[in-house]
Batch of 2 targets.
Target 1
Amino acid sequence: MTPPDTLQFSYRALRAYPGRTALILLAMCIGVAAIILLTSLGEGARLYVISQFQGLGSNLLIVLPGRSETTGGAPPLLGTTPRDLTLDDAIALYRSPAIKEVAPIIVGAAPVAYGSLEREVTIMGSTPALLSARQLTLASGQSLPDTNPRVAAAVCLLGETVWKELFASRNALGEWVRIGQTRYRVIGVLAGKGQSLGMDMSDMVIIPVASARNLFNAPSLFRIIVTAQGQEQLAQARRDVETIIRQRHDGEDDITVIAQDSLIGTFDNILSALTWALGGIAAISLVVAGILIMNVMLVAVSQRKAEIGLLKALGAPTTQVLRLFLTEATLLASAGGFIGLLLGLGGVFALNQLLTDFSVQPPWWAVIASVVVTFLTGLLFGSIPARQAARLDPVAALSGR
Amino acid sequence: MSSDPFIRLREVCRNFQVGDETVHALDHVTLDIQAGNYISVMGPSGSGKSTLLNMLGLLDQTDAGSYQLAGRELTTLAEEARAQVRREKIGFIFQSFHLIPRLTAAENVELPLVLAGMPASERRAKVQQVLQGLGLQERADHRPAQLSGGQQQRVAIARATILQAPLLLADEPTGNLDSHSSADVIRILEELNAQGITLIVVTHDTNIGGRARRRIRMVDGKVVKDET
Ligand SMILES: Nc1ncnc2c1ncn2[C@@H]1O[C@H](COP(=O)(O)OP(=O)(O)OP(=O)(O)O)[C@@H](O)[C@H]1O
Ligand SMILES: [Mg+2]
């Protein structure tokens, strides 16, 4: 029996039992569609996070107070309470030739008022270096004064959202807003920029770091963002940061320095693993579909005993009978898988229409794997019924026993 | 005997274990059958007629003895080789026709050619020719369920003979047919025999059995009468 004839014969057999065939197609199809959709969501999340970090600017180091376990050091034990990072620590970092800019950051929330309008807004205290580090641009006006960061100044930059809400998009430059108890003059408005690292950069107000220290009455920094001179100087900058702070903190290594790259790498790994896990969970449904195929094929074998006996009487070798039933199972599984693939990709397309700032896309390996796995599922779960068919005794099979 | 027999059985046994009891379905059967002969096998129910036919058709095994077909020992063949002998040398006709219901008459007839791996282009003409010879050309595209019993059995005969197997085995071929269709089927089988095919018919019908050139009677797995 030639392969096209085998395929044709199996196809006709499947067509003869439409209900059963449809059931398996559905099960297979749901399994594959689930794999495609879930892995697409995982992959979408991964790409989303990476894009968030990339909005951060390159050659960045983030300096956090306290020793973090993730970098491999010992966690703070008794007696080694980490020191806070101070503005003087940040200024000291300028001693390193590898470092281009240093942006000390204090974050807090305070009511911001203009006229009769008042709103609780995130306040960021920093220096002009923040704008280049986080790749913020001004829509109008000018940046914070580039003077001694220890000196407070009653000036502020408004995020786009804050400006729209307080000023109803009218000119704000030169106007005075009240932040907490103090009046600040608006010297610039930031151009719109979306989310970055979970912080809405347009829904905030930026003031000089010394002013924020007074406003929140807090001497310590939230973190320091350091920009290296270039990609090659990043490692040197990191060593310098660690040495300078250690010197200033009585020889204690009580800070954590995160390079943007390694951060992306970590998230990348975590979210890739998540995607694989989601794919794996969805693959369980393929096993269920496989078991369904096996059961249905077992029923088919017992219902078609007479046919199998006849094929043997006509001189079909056992291997041919085996091949016929295996072909049926893999044909079913592959067809179901193919429909599921189309359905899954359709679902991805629909999701992308619904979600605007989150793009979902199936990872290439999931597409290939789902095709291969459906084929193997048919082969694997079809082999037991096919073997049973091939082993039937022709006389018993012909009499329906 | 002047020439070697086409079928040569020596002391063939086939036993079935039913509970504690051993049923001797074939009990030391020795037979020689010449090529082109027309044989009927009769006997009471359970006497081993079907078992004999299945054994001759290589659908069933032997437990002892020797079976030679055209000078070749078959009891020692492996399964694949037995399948090949079935395909090339033996045609089967059953009481209940055993047509595949989802296939048309023509496709059922075509099946042995498909199994033999014949290209589709050659198959069509051959099927056409065989169906025509049996007066079934009008029914080629009908499913078995749309055919009468007599028509179904004729399709089965077409299927059994399309590869020109030299041996045709029929197990109660008229058992499910009315007398008119029975006569039809027997006439076709006898025509095939006249063209040289070796025909062995198992039947309960004494009229049919009596027409054969050689009449074998079985009881309890043994050949008790053998008349020519
Ligand atoms: N697979 C089997 N298992 C057990 N016993 C069997 C089997 N096949 C046949 N037999 C027994 O072997 C004996 C011969 O059976 P066989 O079918 O050859 O009879 P038969 O002559 O064809 O009868 P009938 O005219 O009713 O068709 C019977 O006693 C039967 O019960
Ligand atoms: Mg019988």
Target 2
Amino acid sequence: MKAVRAIEIRGLKKSYNGFQALKGVDLEVNEGEIFALLGPNGAGKTTLIRILAEGLGYDSGEIRIFGEKLSKKTARFIGYVPQESIAYDLLTVEENLKFYADLYDAPKEKISQLIDYFDLPKKKKAKELSGGLRRRLNLAIALLYDPKILILDEPSAGLDVPSRRELWELILGFRKEGKTVLISTHYMEEAEALADRVAIMNEGSIIATGTPEELKSLVGEESIIQIEGLLNGLERLKDKFRLVEKDGVARIHVRTPRESLPEIVETLVRAGSEIRVIKIEEPTLEDVFLKLTGRGLE
Amino acid sequence: MKLRAVKGIIIKDLRELRREKMALFWIFIFPLMWITLFGTMWGGHNPPVSLDVGVVYTNENSAFTAHNVTEIMGNVTLEGVHIFRIKKFASEESGISALKHGKIDSLVVFPPGFGRNVSTGRQAKIYVYFDRSDPQEYQIVRGTLMAFFSEMEKRMREKKIEIQLEYIEKYMPTGEYNITPEAVREYLIASAEPLRIEEKEVSGNAPTPIKFYITSFIGIQFLFATMLTIGSGTLEEIEKGTLRRIAASPATAWDFLAGKMLSTFFIIMVSIFVGLVYSRVVFGETIVPSPLGWLIIFTASVFSMSLGLAIAMATRSIKSTTAVVNFISMPLLFLAGIVIPESIIPSWARPLTEYFALGRALKDFRLLEIYHRPVRDIMPGLTLVGVETAMMFLIALFLYRWAMKRMEV
Ligand SMILES: Nc1ncnc2c1ncn2[C@@H]1O[C@H](COP(=O)(O)OP(=O)(O)OP(=O)(O)O)[C@@H](O)[C@H]1O
Ligand SMILES: [Mg+2]
């Protein structure tokens, strides 16, 4: 039996005043899975999500939600948690939930349930909430009408590490309840920690889809040498190896570590680097992205 | 239309407003300040004026002197208020300087010999100086002083006639002509004052200025609060992304608009009601609009909301909307006769009171509620206002739809 597709997208194209933000996206999200759209800034993640969740217009393509054409009617299947807060600053948590419950014609009992579930301070005004609480209020709003699909745009952007962990727990909890979750992110850690399947997006196209393991195997025979320290002369290696550097950590893709390592170290040291740590690492999704696009995620 | 959603939007708007101190100020307090200010300045009962009058005279020892005149002036009271506060100056120069510096409202100079001239029945001179830099002030000061002197003159005339009559009675040959001293007396009085004008006040039916200022307040609500509430309210939700969210929900952008208009309408109606009650409490007078009066208010508020929305949707920025609304409304406050009577509007601006919906609506509202004109007198105006409102409403809807398209919802 063919699995029910929660979301099915074919050949989706969208341009903003002549600029092509989506260049023909194909995507399938299965019911009950957590699916991550992983891509750098400007990849088109938000655009894709807004088409699904906000009814943003598109140029061509076909979108089905549980087999039904995307429409105002399917809107109720989708709970959307945008990146920005959608709460009204001057209203309390409870008043905000009441307002959105009226909009979605959601049952009133749901309000207090969600306040308890997310441990929200119901009498506090939205403007007095911390970033993490705001994100949870956004989540609560999206869950008011018990949607089958939850779409979160960059859910952990701007959150500190503890808030991020908490949020991940919540998201994993939704899957247990049988919800389908679509998140966008440019943190590969987030995609790896949460997603059953990942689509890697770049410049308006999806360039690979699969489980994190499947994607990592795309890196193939290559190994990753990770070098930490004060690094100079990385650009001299760029012709020969694929590499990314972030916060003083370089990840260099090599076929044969035993042969390449001395050469790499020598080049770096000669350029004046101070190397602190050298590790041979497993590939991450970032390495997949590097392999596919030739550049890093951020 | 999703009724629960519309209701939710209205409640949310009202809750937000309740916590928005600046908006509360502009919608409720500011217009009340307006009524208070103008009501106490010009409304209802005018207290008598009181003037500082400088005097210059030299001491004389005749029977009647300049000093006597200043005493009389100082004693004049109206409703218990001394009309003239007299300040004596040593010289004409020092008096004029005080007048120039605004320390006194007028200077009265009695030249030397004034007392002797008056006492001996000759013509006496008085010089009166005014400051004309404020024409209205000048009118009031001059009018009050001249009224005093003409009254004084009249008394002096009467006194003179008395004296003359004494002589005439003494020397008039009796019986020769058929002239009685009474007839002579009457004749003399009439030649001194051929016309006697008596002022009579009509009271009761005349509208008091406070009612006019109540209608001004209603007009101000339409020109500012209404337009800004709906305009910036809508733009805020576009900028914040909440309108996009609402449009993505089962409710539509049209439900949102309906909710926004109803909440704005409700807020404005409450503010007008508060103003009417306030005026009753503070000034003891108010307007209790008839159903037709309320209909005019309703129509004007729809016009005003539409205009505000149209401006907001065309500019799509809160700052520009505020600027455009102020730019349009400030001059209209005066030129469309919102806060000043039509009679003092320059003739080139008169069409605004005739054809600009808010000016015309207010004019008709005044005719109906203050001057109690028959309904048929204001029918043409109401028709015009209705047509303009319908047109403005359609323009606003059109621009709103256009803005929603631009917003990609
Ligand atoms: N309203 C808009 N008008 C014009 N161009 C837009 C608009 N929204 C997005 N774009 C452009 O479309 C491209 C994709 O943007 P989008 O926001 O979908 O990317 P993203 O993957 O969500 O990026 P980020 O990680 O920064 O959120 C970008 O180049 C962006 O500049
Ligand atoms: Mg984005």
